[in-house]
Specification:
Layout (H helix, E strand, L loop, with lengths): L8 H14 L3 E4 L8 H13 L5 E7 L14 H16 L4 E7 L11 E5 L2 H7 L4 H6 L3 H8 L2 E2 L10 E7 L13
Parallel strand pairs: 1-2
Antiparallel strand pairs: 2-6, 3-4, 3-6, 4-5
Helix pairs in contact: 2-3, 3-6, 4-6
């Protein structure tokens, strides 16, 4: 019986690129598959994002990892990556950038959240709600922090799992991209 692959992380990345182009944005599909420590990747992806011009969506696919402490909190690898990225965006004062990290199956870790969409103000929103982003990252409790910040992404189960997607976008000087809320 022949085997036929009908979906892959590559096809999910290409679909994200097509959606970005439909919104009037350029898309940069990064071919290297995501792997490695989620927190390190979050900081690294922000460093890459800030080096490129605004209006280009960086798209990556794959799966990161998280080394869990003895008593982990709530969240998953995408939320962990997103919180690390939010800390780096804040550290750099990069107020024109956003990063989305999400599982294509609509589930991240043992949570019902798909991932998170963060920006440079995410950490302050979480602090304002009484949470500490550094402590949350160390405790693998990114989900609790990101919920407090209002940054969790809920899609519900998609019934398709081809990996995770990480998208980054800088908006500086872009005024007419459909569907992007700058407030």
């Amino acid at each position: 019986m022949p085997v036929r692959i009908v979906a892959s992380v590559g096809s999910a990345c290409r679909a994200a690129a097509a959606a970005a182009r439909a919104q009037g944005l350029q898309a940069r599909l990064l071919r290297a598959r995501i792997d490695g420590d989620a927190a390190e990747l979050g900081a690294r992806f922000v460093a890459s994002l800030v080096r490129q011009p605004a209006g280009i969506v960086q798209i990556r696919g794959g799966e990161s990892t998280v080394s869990l402490p003895a008593q982990p909190g709530r969240g998953g690898r995408n939320q962990h990556l997103a919180l690390a990225a939010a800390l780096e965006l804040e550290r750099r004062g990069q107020h024109d950038a956003h990063l989305l990290a999400a599982g294509t199956d609509g589930v991240d870790g043992a949570s019902s959240d798909a991932g998170a969409l963060v920006d440079a103000e995410s950490c302050q929103r979480g602090r304002d709600a009484g949470c500490d982003p550094v402590v949350s990252l160390a405790r693998a409790d990114s989900g609790t922090f990101l919920e407090a910040a209002g940054d969790l992404l809920h899609t519900g189960p998609t019934l398709t799992n081809v990996g995770d997607l990480v998208l980054g976008l800088r908006l500086e000087g872009i005024d007419d991209v459909a569907g992007i809320d700058r407030e």
